[in-house]
Amino acid sequence: EKRVLFSKQLITDSLLGSAVDTMKKPLVRGCKAENGRLVCLPVDAEAEKEDIDMVTSIQEQYDTELALQTEIEEKRYAKYGGVDPTTGKRMSKRPDLTTRTVLTERGAFMSKVIGAPRGVPHGKSFVSRACLALCGAHTPPIAGIDTMALQGKTKAAVAVSIVMAGGYEDDADAADVFPYTGAGGNDLLHTSRQIYDQRVDAKSDARANAAMAASCELGIPIRVIRGNSNNERKRDDYCYDGLYRVAGCWFEVGFSGYRVVKFRMERMEGQPATTSASVHFKQKAGQTLRKDTKATDRPGLVLADITMGLGKIPIPVVNTLDKSNRYWAPTMIPVKLVPRKDGMPNTVDDISKAIDEKIDAVFSKEKTRMLEGASKSDVVSDEEVRESLRRRIFVYLADSVRSESVPVPKPPYERARDEFLARNPDRDASKFVDAKAFHDNKLKDMNVLGGMNTDVPYSIRRTSASMFASCMFIYESLHEQSEQAVVRNGPTKRLEVYRTEGKGWGVRCWDQIEAGDFVCEFTGEILSNDEAATRCKANDHANEYMFELGSSGVNKLGCLLDPMKHRGELEENVDGFDAERYLARCEAEEKGEEIDEDDDRQIASPSAIRAMLKAGGVSNDEAMTGFELDGLRGGSVARLINTSKEPNLFIQMVCTSENWDIRQARLCLFAMKQIPAMTELTYDYGTLYQTRFEEGDAEEEIKRVGASGGYVQTLQRGSR
């Protein structure tokens, strides 16, 4: 019961011994001396570009390798029942540390410095401590204080970074100025309880406290990284929040009655405002909205749910721009497609009818709006009103709709069963393998043909394995409860459509999206090539939302069955296509020989294409017919996602259990890296879209275009 109380006292030089006296004050990156103290220099984005690109590359490699190592460890854990066969001890699953080792051996890491980390701008988020270490921001996997030894007569060190993650019961965070609890005395049982006094000396965990005190004495700035608990993912995420100086240090009695070391942290001048979600909650990039947030809570709400109840999760539309802003615009008008009375699937004609009916219903209101915005001398014609409505009205499609010229694929199980009975007319249909067994037996082979290098398309966490497979097509499971039926189950992210400045409407997510997560499907009207060409001739804007379906620029997949015969068409549509090299690569691949890493593996061999077409019930002649997806008149929220030179989403073609016709595979968007909450979602539209609008006079559209070469697929939006 008796506790010794310590008065609040400054740590003196005697606690550090002679360490400070023998240290040489180092150069501090990103700072300069001003009036006797260090201040932060403004970040030169151009000068830092190489380092920023390197950090981005490291994070992308980390996400990819982590997904692979997680899958490997999960399989090993399941195989041995969680017990290490060599030691007999319980296995520890740390794919993050394995990933760090792999990338370090690969040379994918940044060196640690004193001061501002190389290539890590303020507000940069990280998925784990291991990723922090690889990017040079904070190297210890557990410890909250990172140190560096300085030149001098002793081996004394200074602190260079801290992680503020609530690991001690005495922690308190107040953004720009806060007290930081030193290291040591914690029970290490994740209770944050203090069980003995902290010290400041050169022994064990007290060494970090001595380094913090040395940084205080020498004026060395400290990088502050804040942890933000992600309960859904059962881990912490981290955000770099800039440089702080250690303004003072002292002992005081902590919450449990033990002596703790406190360091006063003050944010250095010349940096952007602190925005980390662990400090205060404003809906900015990187900050997750509360789980109980509703559409009606969002500022500038203009539409509660753009899906009109067709999505599992409502997608609100917000516009916080003032009407005087040149980028303000009236909201789009979604229309819900009414199911046909005959029970047949909706068609392209149903979309036309729904749009015409909506135009008639809102015509008067729209004309009044346009007249209010026009000058007295202007005349607004009925055709101008209808054209304005055609640009704003679209039918929301949870699933794509086919034109009458596009065949409806027969589910692969039904087709295989019918073929079996045709060959064996005397056999009982009930003797044929059931649907689940059929798909379980076929999925692995189909995914290998599609380019996967793992047994299944998704990890147990439902993230796409195609991130590290660079595959053309992935095939999903039949059963919705399976983790291998991600697209079939529909989008699960809390998305939001919002008005941007200069890029029209954009899309973001209320929550952080992990690398490999499924975001949404690009739906629309599936047309024949001839129908798509006719639309583009009749409407200058028809091309804006048009995709040629297929793979890697190959719309008519039958061309790959005889690449020499169709060499001209392939070279015209596929950047850098070389028929001889392609055939040589395919031959080497089939022989199991080593393949040049520079060869494009995204274009499957003729034998793989032939096998996938056969599995989808498509003949070689039919394979010469290609289809296109038009999202102009109808589509999902994906039609509003903008392009970027540095996209955070990639396109992956997916075949679900009801359709294995790869000519009509579903065009899906997955996260290519971790995406902080409230960050705009983007993907690469491709070079054709960029060229089209750079040649025209569409300033706003030019700002939307990006560079060529998608992350996995290189389908072209604006393909005509």
Can you walk through the features of this model?
The radius of gyration is 30 Å and the shape is globular. The termini are far apart. The protein has 16 helices and 27 strands. A hairpin with a 7-residue loop joins strand 5 and strand 6. By secondary structure, it is of the alpha/beta class.
Radius of gyration, in angstroms, nearest whole number: 30 Å
> What integer is the average pLDDT?
79
**Residue fraction in strands:** 15-25%
Low-confidence stretches: 1-22, 277-284, 597-601, 696-714
Shape estimate: globular
Q: What structural class should be given to the helix and strand makeup?
A: alpha/beta
Distance between the termini: 81 Å
Number of strands: 27
Q: Give a short account of the largest sheet.
A: 8 strands, mixed
Helical amount = 25-40%
How many H/I helices? Answer: 16
Any descriptors?
720 residues; alpha/beta; 4-stranded mixed beta sheet; globular; disordered N terminus
In short:
The chain is of the alpha/beta class and 720 residues long. The chain is built from 16 helices and 27 strands. The N and C termini lie far apart (81 Å).
